[in-house]
Fold each of these.
Amino acid sequence: MKREPQIPKAPEPEPNNSNLRETLQLIIDEFDKKGAPIELDLSELSSKTGRGADEIQKTLTDMGYDINESPAVKPEEKVSPAEKPKKRSQPTKQMDKTDWTDVDHKLEDAVNRLRQAKDEAEKEAINAEIKLLKEKKFPELKQNKASLTRKPLAKPTSTQSGAAPGIPVNVYSEDILDQIDAKEEAREKASLDEKLQKAVIEYAYGKSNPKSIPIETTKTPIDSSAYEDDYIPKSSEVEAVKEAVLNKAQRDFIESVPSKAFENDYTPRERSTEEGIHNPQFESKLETIIKKALEPTTDINTIVSAVIALAKTQNDAQLFSATIQKASRIVGKMILGLKSEPENDNYSKEAREGLIEIINKLSPQALEAEKNSTSHKIDFANYENGKTNFDVDPEVIVNPTSVIEPPANPEVPAVSEEKTLEAIKTIENRRAERIKKLGSKFINGIQSIEKKYNSIPLKYRLGISATMLALSYGAGGAGAGINLGYRVIMTSISMVSLERLLASQIQGERTTWQKTRHVTEAVSLAILMSFFSEIKSAVASGVDQASAIRDWLNETPKLTDSTTMSKTPEVFPNLTEEESLRNLEAMRAIDNANSSSSEIAKTATTETTTQTTSTSSQTTPTPEALKPAEVISSYTVASGDNLTKIIQEKILANSGLEGARLTNATENILSAMRADPTKFGVTSGDLNLIKVGENIDIAKIKELADSISINGKNIIETANNLSAEQVANISNYKPNVADVVSSVTSSNPNVSEALSNSVNSWSGEGVGNEEVIEKIPDEPITNKTSENATSNSTETIASNQTQKTINSELIEQVKFKADIELRQLVESKFGSKGIFGLFKSDGMNIWDNIKDIPVAKLDEFAKVGAFEAGSAEAKSFLVQPSTRDATFNILSELQEATGLKPAEKETIGKFISRMLEDTKMKALTSTKNITA
Amino acid sequence: MQKEFDTLFGEVIVALNLSNMSKEAQDKIISDLGKNMFEEIIVSALEVMSESDREEFLKLEESNDPILISEFLSSKIPDFNNFARERARSVVDDFLKAFEVK
C-alpha cells in the first residue's frame, strides 16, 4: 500500500525545567501569531517554571529580547472571584473560530500532559503554559493584569533581584489563579468526557442521528452535573465514560466498524496524544485488554470488540489498521513468549487458542481497514504545520509487519495458512486422480492407511513428518542434510519406536528395549525405515555426532528400563504383546537392513560395550569369534523367529561364516541341542516348535556350541575347513523325502540316529561323527544290521513287530523331516534371512498347520479369497502365497517320487503319510533285494 | 529431547516458510505434509506394481506388520529407499512450487 508523502512534522514543544528557552519561545510565538504585544509576568513564570526571575530574564536576553518596564497595575480594576464566571462566559475580546479552536486544542493537550506529568518542575512549566493559553482564551483574565510591552531585540536596561525592571510582580493574586486553574481543569475534563460520550454514540449508531440513541448505561452512572460549569468530575466517572465506549463496542462494534468507519463524509476528529497509538498508555491499554484472553472465563469476542473499539477511537482508516496491527503484534509477542518458555507456560491450551483466535479475528479487520484506507487518507492539512498529535510511523501502515517474525530468508514472502492448506489440498486432489486409476479397492486401501496415520498421536505424526521432510530435503549427503538428519535422530526417534534402534546398536546390553510399547502404525514405520538408513549413514559420517548420540543415550537411561515402559502404556493402550513383539521384530529388521552402517556401532561402542566384538572379515576366525554379537543371556522369541535364525544371529553373527559354512555350523549346534531341547528353553521339546514369548537360553546354547569338537576342531574351524565340494553339496542340497526315508530304513532301525545322520548329510561334514554323536557308526549300517540278522535277513526285517516299530517311528520322524524340508524348500525359494517372518503362525510347526487340510482344497487356495476350508491356522498359513506355493511344491515333489495321487477328501497329512509309507515299502523292498 | 525437537521443527518451519503461522497451524501443515508424503510413496509404489502385487500389499497392510510391509516394498520396488525419498521430495517440491519458493 502506498500513501501520499507526509508533510514534515514540527517538533512538539515540551515545556519543562530543562527547556526554559523553548517554553519561553513557545509563549512568545503565541503572541507573535496574533500580532499582539508580548506581555510576560516574570514572577508568574518564575513560580510556574521553578526558575528564578533572573534566569528567565537572562534567558530572554539571550534569546535577543529587550525587556521593558510595564505599566503599573491598577488594583481597582481587579475582578473579584465571584464575578469571574459571568465574565468568563462572555469574553471581552471575541476570537475568531479558528483561533478559539486552536487555543482550545492546545489547552486540552497541556491539561493532558499535566495529568501525565510526574516531575514537579515539569508540572509547573506546563501550568505556566496553561495559564498563558487560558489568558489567551479568556482575555478578561488579563484585564486586571498589568501588561508588558516588548521591544524586540532591545537589551534590558536594568536588572533587579526577584523581579526584572519593567515587569510587574504579582499583578493578580494566586488565589484568583488557583480558582481559574481548578475550574478550567474541570472544564477540560468535562470537555473530554463529553467527547468520549459523543464518541460512544457516534461509534455505535453512526453520526447521522447520534442524539436519538441514548448512551449505554454503565456500572458507574455519569453524573449529569459533570457538565455544569463548576463541576469537577471524579476520576471514576471519567473512567466510567471511557468504559461506556468499550461496553458499547463490545455489543455490536464488530459489524458496525467496517461500514461506519469509512464513510465518505468522515472527517478525523480531534485527538489527544493519550489516544495516539504510540502513546505508552494506549499500548498499555491494549495489552491490558488482550491479556484478559489468558483468563479462563474471558469471552474472546469481547476482547476483540474492545480492541476494535479502541482502534476505532483513532477515527481514521489507516490508524485503525495500524492499531489493529499493533494489537496483533502484542498478541504475537504473548504467543511467542509462551512458546519460548514452555517450562514456564502455565497457561491453558484454551488461553493460547484464545490468543490465536484474537489474531484470526483481528486480521480481517486490519485488512479491511487497510483496503479502505486507500480512499481515506489522513487529512494532514487539518493539523498545524502538517503535524498531527499522532505519532504514527508511516512504515507501520505502508509495510505492516507480520505478527510473528517472518522467515529468515527475507526474499521469501510469508504465506498464509489458508494458501498453504490450499496447496496441500491441490496435491491431494492430484493424487486422488491417480488413486482412482488404481481402482476402487485401492481407494479404500489408501483411505484405510490414511485413517491409521491420522490415528497416530500428533507428536508421533510430527516426528514422522519431520523425519521425512528433513531427509527428503537433505538427501544427497550435503552437510546441512547430515546435520538435519542427525537432529532427526536426536528428536523424532524419541517419538516413535525407532528410538530403540540406536540403543540396540550402541549398547548391546540394552535389551529391555525389546519390550517397548512404542509402536507406530505399521506402514508408516515401514516407510520410515527406508528413510532411516540414510539417517544412520549421515550420523556415521561424524564421530562427534556419534558421541553426541552416545551421550544422549547415557543421559536417557530411563528410555530402556521398565519404569519408562510403565509410564507410556497410554500411548497405545490396546497394544497386544504380539504387536509389541512384532514391533520388536521390525526394530531388529532395521538393524539387519542397516548393517552397512555399523560404523556408528563400532564408534560408539568402543567405550560402552567392551564385550562386543568388531565385525570380522577374516576367513579363518579364531575360536573367540564364536562370541555372540550381543552379550545377552537369553532371547525372547518373537513372531517369525526360528532356532536357525536365532543361532545365526545371536551365536554366530560374528563368526565370519556365510552361506553353506554358516549352515554347517548352525546344524551342528542344532544337532547337539536335539538331545534335550528343553534344557535350552524350548519347552515343547521340539526344536522346530518354539513359541512366541519363550525365553531361549542363549548362554547355554553358546556354552554347548563352544563344547562341540569335531576332529579336534570347534564348529567354526570345522565349517571353515569344509572343502569346496562339501560347500557345493550343501549349497545344492535339495532334500528329498524319498532319499531320507530310504537312507533311514536302509541303514538302521534306530531311526533317530539314522535321521540325525541324514540331517547331518545336509551340512556335509557336520556333527555326524563319532566325537559328537558317538552312536553314529562309521561303517555302513548294513554291516551292523547284518550282525544281528540271519541269512534270511529279509524276513527278520520284515517281521511284524519290527515293521510296526519302524512304521510308527518312521512316520513321526518323516513328519518332522517333512517339516524341515518344507522350510528348506521355502528358504531355497525366498532366501533364509527373515523368511519365516512371512509365516503368520504362532509357532513354527508348519506341519501342524497344514496336515488337516484336504489336498483337494489346495486348488481352491490357489484362488484368492476362496480358502473357506481347513483350520484357522491353515487359513492363516495359506493366506501367504509364498507359503502356499511352498506347500504345493513339497506335495508335488512327493507325488513325483511316489507316483501317488491324493484321494478325494484325503488330507495333506494322510496323503503324505501314505506316500511315505509307500516309499518306505519300496525302500524296504529295495533293501531286501540288495541284501539278498 | 523436546528442545532438540523444537530446534529441528523450527528449521523445517523456516525451510517451508511457515514461520508466520500459529503453532497449531504449523503442526497441522507439517502433519498433513507428512501424510501426503506418506501416501505419495504408497500410491507411487502401487502404480509400479503388478495387479497381483497390489493385492498382496493390501493384505499385508491389513496385517499391520511393518517388517512384512517393509520387506515387501523393498522386494517389489528397486532401490526402495531412494524411491521413497524421491517421492517424498516431490511432495515438498510441489508444496513449495505453489508459492514459487525454491
Amino acid sequence: MEATKTFSAPPVAAGVAGGSVNIEPRYQGAARDGQRVLIKKWFDGLSQSRETGSKVAYAFVIPSAFELLRSFDIQVIALPEVQALQVAVKKIGHEYLARSEELGYSLDVCGYVKIDVGMMDMNMQHPLGTIPPPDLVICPTLCNTYIKWAEIWKERFGVPVMLLDQPSRIVNPESYWGSSTFDADRRYMMGQLEDMIEVCERITGKKFNEDRLAEYEHQWNLVADLWLEIRDYNKRIPAIFDAFEDGLYYMGGIQACRGSAEAIPFMESIKQELQERVELGIYPIKEEKFRMFIDLAPCWSRLRSFINLFKRWDVLFVYGTYMSMLVEPEFRYDLSRPLETLADSMLYFSTPDSVMNLFSNRLGQTIDLCREYSIDGVVLHAIKSCRAISGGIVDEREFLQRAGIPTLFLDSDLVDARYFSEAQMRNRVDAFFESLERKKYFGAKA
Amino acid sequence: MTEEIIERCRELIEDFSFPEVRRWKEQHPQGKVVGYFPVYIPLEIIHAAGALPVAILGSGNRIEVKQADSRLPSFICSIPRTTLELGFRGMLDFLDGMLFLPICDVARNLVQIWLRNITQMTTDILYLPQNLISRGSIDYLHSEYQRLQSLVEEWSGRRVSPEALSQSIRLFNRQRLLIRQLYQIRRETPWRLSAADTYAVLRAGTLMPVEQHIEILESVLEWAQKRETKSLDKIRVVLEGTFCEQPPIEFIEGVEDVCYIVDDDFILALRWLTDDVPLEGVDPLFSLARSYRELFTYASIQHDGRRPKAQEFLKKCRNARAEAVILSPPKFCEPGLDDQVLFAQALDREGIPYLSMEFEEKMTTFEQLRLQVETFAESLLFYA
C-alpha cells in the first residue's frame, strides 16, 4: 500500500482545525525563536570567554552538577555532545570525523568523541563560534565513554577532571533508596561534590555559598514542574506538539541554559505556545494517523531525511526519550539540604526510575509511557557509535513486542552519515507502517 | 609432566562444560559457584565464604552464537555475545550467582539483558569506583566490598570471619606472587615460557580453586626456570588490548611465531594487584579495598585521576625492554579503541614502533594476522 500523502509543511502552525477560527495566533514559533536566542547567547559566552575572563567548564548533557557550577558563577559551560551534533546538523561532521580518523580513532569510536577530537585538531573551530579550552571538566559516569572522553581532555588540556561517579544500582532498585548501600553511595557522592567545591573555590576565588546553590536548585525545580505540564499536552488526542521536531527546539533551548534561570521564561513561552494551540485548534499535523514513541536521537547529519521517512506516513511522535531525558519528572531538589539533595539527584539518575538512564532498563518506563500517551508503536533507533543507548536495544525490542507494542527497529549513527542507508531505512519504515495501518485501521492481526 | 599440565590448561580453557568446576561441585555438594564477568573482582571474599569464583569470559571461537545474536546489535564487541550464548544454552546453569561489573557501556547493557533473560541464577553488580582519588573512594569501596561479602554469605550460607578472609588473602597473595615470577621469566628469558602457555595457565586458574592453581603455577615456574631452550632472533614486543575480551590462543601463537611477547594484559583478574595485600594490623576487608587503588597500575576500563595511563603503559614497556608494541584492542571496544590512540601517541613520543591490529575472540582465520605481524617484525629486524 502506498503512503497516504506527503506532508511537507513546517512543524508548527501547520494546520488549523475546525476552519472557523478568527483569532490570529500570537505565540506560535516561540519555542523555535527562544531556542535560537538561547543558543546564540550560549555560543557568545563560549566565544567571548577569553575577553570576558570567564571560567569555562566542560560538562555533559547528563546532569553534571550545573547548579553547583553556576553557584560559583561558572556560567560558561561547554557541552561537547551538543556541539558535536550541531556540527553534524550543519552537514560538516564528515570533515571532523575524517580528521579524528587520521589521528588514529577507529570507525567504531563514538561519533561525538570523534567530532570533538577533530575539532580540537582544527583549532577548536565550530560552525557557531570558537570553543575555548576548559578550566575544569565535570564528568558524570552514567556513560562510560564520558570517562574516556574526559581522559582525552585531561591529556590535551591538563585541567582538573572532576569525576562524579554514579554507582549503577539497577538490581533490586525498589529497596535501594534509604538502604545502607544508598547511604554509602551518598557519602561517596558527597565526597566527590566536596572535591568539586574545593576546585571551584580555587579556580574562581569564591567561597561556596549554599544559599546560592539552593537558589539555582529552586529554579530547576520550577523548570521541572513546567516541563511536566508541557509533556502532558501530548496526552491529548490529537497531540499538541511533535515530540521529535518541536522537541529538538525545546531541548536545544534547555541545553543552552542548563541550570540557569533563563530556562524558566523559555519553558513558560513553550507552554504559552502550546496552550494557544489548544485554544485555537492548531495541530502539528493535519491528520494524526499514527501516534508514535521514538527512542532516541536521529542521525543528525541526515536529520531532514530521517524526519521525512515518517512524514510520508502522517506519523506524529508524541513522546521522545531524547527530548524527555533532560528534565527528571519525578525528582525535585529538597532545598532544605542543597548539597545533599544534589548528591541524591546524581544517584537517582543511575536508577531505573530515572529518565536520564541511558540503558535498556528504561523498558518498564517505555511500556508505562506507551499506555499513558496512547501510543500506537515505538521506533527504536539503534545508534552504532553509542553503545550506552543502543547496546540493549535489540533485547528491548523483543520485550516490547512481547508486551504487545509494535516496534520498528532502525539502525544508523548519531553523526556518521556513512551508516545512514536511506533506501534500506525507507523500506523498513514503509513495511512497518503498512502493517500498522492494516492493524490499526482495518483490524488485521499483523 | 609440566608440559602435560600446560596441555591440560589449554584443554580446560576451551572446554565450556567447565569440567574442573563440576568436579569441585561434586566434591563440595553444598558449595556455591559464583561467576564473574571481566575484569577484576576481589576473589578472596568469595573464597573466604567457601564458594568457588569462576571467570565467565565468553566462549571465544568454540561455540557457535545463535540465540545471543538475536538480542544484541551488530556493532558491539564479541564477549557479551558469546557470554550470553552460554547463558541462553543453559551452559552456565551450575552458577549459583553471577556478578557483573559495569566496566563499559556494553557491559552495563549486558547486565540488564542478563537479568531479563537468564533468570535461573542470582545476578548482581559489583560497582568498583571509577573515581579513585575522591576523599571517600576507599570508604565507598570498603562498603561495596561489605555488600559483596553479605551477598556471598547469603549465597553460600557461610559467614566470613576476618581470620578466614586473611587466610584467603594469603593464598591469593601467593598466587599473585607466582604469577609475577612467571612474568619475570617472560621478561628476562621469554624463550623459556611462551605467552600462549602463560595465557592458558592463567586463564585455567580462573576455572579452578586457587589451591589447585597454586600447585600448577609452582610446577610451571620450576619447569620454566630450568628449561634449556635456545633464544631465537625475534623482536621483543608488548601485546596490549586483551584486558576484557579474550584473544584466541591461535592469535597469541600467531604473534609469537615472529615475536617474543615479553608482557601483556592477559587475565587482569589475577594481576590487578601488583603486590601483596598487606595484612599486618589492618582489617583485611579494608586492606583489600585500599589495595584495589594502591596496588593497581592502569587499565583501559579504570579511570585514575592520579596519573595518565599512557605513562604507566610506557613504564611497562620499558620494564619489559620492549622493542615494539602490538596494540590490539578488540573490535568495537570503546575503551580499548580510545586508549589505543593515547598509547600510540605516547609510543610516538618515545620512539617505540608499534603495530595496531584489532582482534575478535571469535576470529577463526589467522593468516592475515601472521602476515601483518611478520611484515612488521621484518621491517624492524631488517630496515629499522
Amino acid sequence: MSDTKVLSPLKAMVWKIEVEIGQAVDEHDDLVILESMKTEIPVQAPAGGIIAEILVKEGDSVEEEQPIAILRSAP
Amino acid sequence: MNARSTLFRKVLVANRGEIACRIIRTCRRLGLPTVAVCSEADIGSLHAQSADEAVVIGGPRATDSYLNIASVIDAAVATGADAIHPGYGFLSENAAFAEACASTGITFIGPGVEALRAMSYKGAARQIARGCGVPILPGYDGPAEDDTILAAEAARIGFPLLIKAVAGGGGKGMRRVDASAQFTRSLAAVRREATSSFGDDRVLLERFVVDPRHIEVQILSDGQGRTLHLFERDCSIQRKHQKVIEETPAPGMTADMRRAMAGAAIRLAEHVGYRGAGTVEFVVDASDGLRQDRFYFLEMNTRLQVEHPVTEMVTGLDIVEWQLRIAAGEALPFVQDDIACSGHAIEARLCAEDPSRMFLPSPGLLQIFKLGSSNREIRIESGMRAGDTVTPYYDSLLAKVVVRGADRAAAITALAQRLSEMEVSGIKSNLALLRRILGHQAFADGQVDTKFIERHADVLLGPSA
C-alpha cells in the first residue's frame, strides 16, 4: 500500500467535499471542489484507491500545495 | 454647473474593484458625494480609498459582504446615502435587493423591479421576446413531452440541435444532437440526467448554432417614452463562456443588420417597460456573413456591462452619468440621430489566470503592475495597484484596457502597442494571450467567433516566448 497526498493546485476555498473516508475512487474522480475567483476547480484522484484521510472541511481556505486528502492505493 | 449636484444627496456604490472606481469617478465629476462599501479583505483597496467615505460591511466572502442585502442597506442608511449604484454582478440583478432599496426609500440605480424580474428567468425571457417579435432560436418549448412528437419537432427544427432540461442550468441536463438517428437515445439520456439532477424530466429543443458570434446592443431608456440604442458590441472572443475581447462596431456590421438588431432590442426594452441602461444579447449565426434573419435573442442584462467603455469611447456618452440622471427622474434630452458612432473601440480584459493551465485562477501578490496611464484614446480601468494582493474571493479581472482608433486597424495597432508595454508579475495573467490575439491575422481579418481561442489554441495558449 502507498499513500499519496493530494495537493491543492492553488490558493482557494473548499466549496464541496465529494467523497468520504474509506470510499473507493477511480482515477480522475472528483474528490473536492475548490472555489477561487468565482471559478469551480475540481481536484481529482491522481490514481484509483481508497480515501484514507480528508484533511480539510467545507468552507476552509487552502494554500497552494496544501495537502487536502490522502489517497491509499495498492502498490 | 453647480459644484454640488441635485441628482442625489449621496450615492453608495455597492461593488468593488474597477467598476466601483469607475462609478465613483463619474459621481465625483457630477459633484455627487460617494460612499464605498468593502469587505474585510478589501480594507485599504483602491475603490474604498477613492470614495468620500467607506464602510466595512462584512467578511471576505461575497455572501458575507457584497451579496449581503441587509449589510449594504444598513451602510446606506448609516451614511445618509439616498441612492445605490450596484455596478455589475453581485446584487445588480437581484430583485429582492431592488425591493429592499425601495422599501427603505433609497433609489436603486437600475430598472424597475418588474422589468428586472421579467428578464431574470431565461425561459420566461425567451417567451417575452417571442411575444414582441424579437427573433429567438428555432425550437420547441411547448407542452408535449411525447417522444414521437418531440422527434417530429426535432426534424422540423433541424440538426444539430440541443435538448435542454427545462429545469437545467450550469451546463447540466443539456445535450447536442447532430443527426436524427441519435435523437431518441439522447432524449432518454437528458431525461435521466434531468430527473436525477432536478427532479423534473421535461425538456425543450433548440437549434444549435455552430461557432456563433456574440453581438449585443446597448440601450438607454428614460422610462418616459424614449428608448435609444448606443450601437452594438461584438463580444465573440471568449474563453469558457467568459468574454476576453470586446469591440464596437462589430466587424462586418451593415446598416441593415444594425437596424434590425437595434430595433429588436428597443422593442424588447419598451415591451417590458425598461428604464435605465441595459443590454440585449444575441447569438448570431455568421456562417454566411451577418444576415438579418440569422440573429437570435440570448438574454437581457438589466445593468451596466463590464464592456460598456467601448460604447462610451465611440459615442462620447458617459453611460453611468445617464444611469444616474435617469434614476433621478430626468428625461433623455437627445434623440437617436444625435448619437453618432465615431471611430472604433476595443477592450481587452486583463485577468489573474493562467491560460496554459486551462485558465486556472492565479491569486497572489501583484509585484509589478505597470499598465501605463489613461489618455483621450486609451482608458485603463483597474481597482488594483502594485503591492495589492489578488484574493481568491472575487472575480479574476485585474484591469480593462480600452482604446479608440480612427478605424479598426488603428484601434488594433494602438491596443497591441499598449499591451506590449504593460508588465505584470507576481501572479500569472493572460497578458501574453491578449497580445497574441491582437497580433493574430484572423483577428485582424475580423474572423471572430466564440470558438476563436480554441481554434487557434496552438498559437494563442502555448508557453510564453
Amino acid sequence: MSAGDKLTIAVPRGALMSGSLELLESVGVDVAEVRENDRKLFFDEQGIITMRPSDVPTYVEHGAADVGIVGKDVLMEQFERDLYELLDLDFGECRLVVAKPKGAAAPNAHALPERIATSYTKTAERYFASTGRQAEVIEVKGSVELAAIAGLAEAIVDLTATGTTLRENGLEETEQIAVCTARLIANPAAYRLKAEAIDDLAARLRAAVGARTGS
Amino acid sequence: MLGPKARVPVQATGEFSETVPVPTGTRDVLPEELALERGISLAILKVFADAGYREVATPSLEYEETMRIGDPRAAERAYHLTDSNGRILVARFDSTIPIARMAATTLAAAASPLRLCYLQSVLRPIEPKRGQSREYLQVGMELLGLDAPGGDAEAIKLACNVIEAAGIGDYRIAVGDSSLFGRLLDEAGLTADGAPRAREAVMYELVTRDLVGLERELDAAGLATAQRDELLGLAQARGGRELLDRAGAEGLSELAGLVEQAGVADRVIYDLGLIRSQTYYTGTVLEVYAAGFGSPLGGGGRYDELVGRFGRELSAFGFALNMDHICRAREIQGEAK
C-alpha cells in the first residue's frame, strides 16, 4: 500500500462538476474523457465516478469511492456520516439562506410556527432549533422557490449562488445560514489503507487551491 | 418458470403484495448465512480460548444508570424500556461496560489479570436508509489487570490472529492514543479549565473528523503558528513507527517495540489523530480495517478508569468486531482473489 495505490474519486455532476474537473486536471488527473462523455458515469481508467451531488457522501462512506468532491451544504445535511473532511477546495461558493416573498409579514405576525419548505430538512431543523424558533419543515425535492410563491410554506431554505433565481421568483433573502464551498472528503478505511495516495492528492490540491486564490 | 420472452409487462398498480415485515435495520438470518457466520465465530472463539480467554455473556438489558456510568451519551441514545417497578432499562448497546461491571462485582474475587471474551448481539439506534443494522453480533475480548503497554500489545496481536482466523488476509490495525491530542492541547494552553470552549470546539472537530473545521478552530483559538501546525499535522499523521519520535508519543513508541517483537508490525498503522466516540477510553485506541471494505470491522482501546467506577481498581483493554462486517469483508476479499 503506497502512493502507487490508485484512488477512486467521486465527482459530483451539476454545478460543481466543471470546477471539480478543472481542479483535478490542474493536479494531473486525466479528465478529458469525463468532459467529453456526458452520459457515462464510470471511468475506470481515470479512477473517476460521477453522480448526483447528494450521493457523493454515500459512495464515499461505503467505500465505493475513496475520496470525493462535494459541497459543504450536502455535508451539513448529511452530518452524521462517517467521513473525513480533508480540505476546503474554495470553489463553487454558494450560500444557504432563508428566503421569503418580498414584503412578507414579520414572523411574529403568525400565531402558528412558520412553515419552511426545503430540500435541506435536517439543516433547516437544526438551524431553526439552534436559533430558538419552532418551525414546521416540509420536504420538497426541487424548485423550492415555488413552495413560498404557491403558499405551501411561508419561507424556504435553499442554496443560492447569485440570488438571481430568488429575485426572479419574487423572493428575498432574510437570513444567511452558511457559506458553502466545495470540500474534499475521504472514506475512513481508505484514509488509512491508502494514506499516502490520499495525502499526496490532498497536498497537490491544497497547493493548486493556494496558487489559484493567491494565498 | 417462465422464460424471459413469456413474461408479460405488468402495469404498476402502486401496491405490493402484503407481507409481515421486520423492523428496519433488523433481518432474519437464513441457514446458509448462519452456517457461514457460525463457522467464523467458532474459529474466532477458538483463537481466544487458545490464548487463555474464557467466554462470558452479559444480560440483554441493563439498568440505564449502569450504562451511564460507562458512557452517558451512548446510554441516552440506546433503546429504553421500563421494568414492572418503573426502573429504566436499556438494551445492551455495548459489551465492554457490562463486562467492566462484571469484573468489579460478580467476578470481584477472580484474580487479575482476567482474560474474558464474548460473542453476543448489541442493539443500537440507526440512521434510516443507510444500510446500518439495528442489531448485530459482536465478538470481542477484554483483558483486565494488565497495564499498558503489555496489555495493549497482547490485544493487538490477538486482534491480528482473530482476523486471520476469520479468513481475512488483507487488513490493517490503526493504532492511536486517545489521550495524546488532549495532552498537547494542555501544553498549548488550551486547558479544560482555562479555555473550555475553545478546547471543546477543537475536540469536536477532531471527533467528527472534520479537518477543515479543526484548522478553523485552531486558528480561532489564537495559537502560535508553530503550535497550530504541529497539532494539525498530528491530527493527520498516519504511518509507521517513525511517527512516534515526537513529544507526547512516548507511550505509543514503547508499544511499537512490543508490537514489533510480537511480529505484527507490518499490520499496524500508527494514526495519531485516531479518536473513538466511546468516552471511556483513556489511552491506546485501535480500529481494524480490511482492504476493499469501507467501514471499520471493529475497534477498541484502553479504559483504565471504567472498572474503578464500578468499585474495583483495574486497568483494562478490550476490542470488539462486528460479525456482519467480518462476513462481508471476507466475502469481498474472497471475490478479489
